[in-house]
Amino acid sequence: MKDGYEPVIAYNRPGWVIAAYVRQGRVYELLTKAVLELPFVMPEDLNREMRGFSAAEREEVRFQIEDRIRQVLDAQARPFECLAVVRFALASRVARASSFDDAMTQLAIDRLQAYGEERIAQCIEEHRQRDTTFEPYRPGEFTRAPRGLTLPLPEGVSAPAIEETP
After folding, report:
1. Does this model's pTM top 0.85?
2. What is the rounded radius of gyration, in angstroms, for the C-alpha atoms of the chain?
C-alpha cells in the first residue's frame, strides 16, 4: 500500500481525508511554532549566582544560555515540523490522486510552499527511512500555478489524445 491513501480513494471520500491530513499538519505546525517562540526566562538560581556580575556580563551569560536553549528546542521541534510537512504532502497527494481540489487542498499546498523544496525533500526522505512504502519526493511535485496561469509541461511530455485511435 503506497502512502496509505489508495483505500481512501476507493472509499470515495477524499475530501474528508484531505481535511484530516491538513488539520493534523496544522496541529504539528502550531506545536512547533509554539515551542520555538516560547519566551525565555532566566532561572532564579542563575540570577542569584550572577548578582555580583556587571550588567554586560549578566547579559552575555543570558545570551549564551538562551542561545543554547533555543538550539536544543529547535533540534527537538524539527521532527514535529517534519510531521507537518508529511501530512501536508499526503493531503496534496490524495488530492492529486483523486482529482480533488478544494480549500483544504489549497491550504496544504500553500503550507508546503512555506517550507521550500529543500525542507520538503528532507522531511519526506526522513519519513521514507521509517516507511519504505512512502513515495519519494519529486522536485516540483507540490508546485501550484498562479491563479489564471498554467505550469509549463516538461520536455517530452504531452497531453493525452482526446480520442483513442484504433
Report:
1. no
2. 23
- Going from the first residue of the chain to its last (166 residues), give the mean pLDDT of each consecutive group of 10, the final group possibly shorter: 52 83 94 91 86 89 90 92 95 88 91 92 94 89 71 69 68
Q: Cell numbers 517550507 correspond to what residue?
A: 115
What DSSP assignment string belongs to the chain?
--TT-HHHHHHT-HHHHHHHHHHHHHHHHHHHHHHHTPPP---HHHHHHTTTS-HHHHHHHHHHHHHHHHHHHHHHHHHHHHHHHHHHHHHHHHHHHHT--SHHHHHHHHHHHHHHHHHHHHHHHHHHHH-TTSPPP-TTTT--PPTT--PPPPTT--PPPSS---
